Amino acid sequence: MAQAARRIVTELHDEPHLEGRRVTVRRIQGLVEGAGESAQKVADGFDLAVADVYAALQYYHTHPGEMAAVARAASEREGTARESGAKSVAELKRERDEGDEVPGPG
Which among 15, 34, 21, 31 has a CA at the least distance from the CA of 75? Predict the structure, then answer.
């Protein structure tokens, strides 16, 4: 089980995340409120304290302008990547499942 609750920070990544971890506030919010996972399940999945999950949710809802800007920036990065020919994880999985695997080193 995780130690004491972590702070929400932004200095190393493009978006708010739990200090010392790569898990973002948006990821936690998406799992709990978007996918309907329990706070405890999300905490266990990332080896966090449940307080970390609730801190992320509180941050998300008390910083709506910042979170909207983060979502817009992520969407713009995704659009740029797609224009450059990048595929989504879903597309790569679909190709793999259809037998169009990328050849490995030979």
Answer: 15
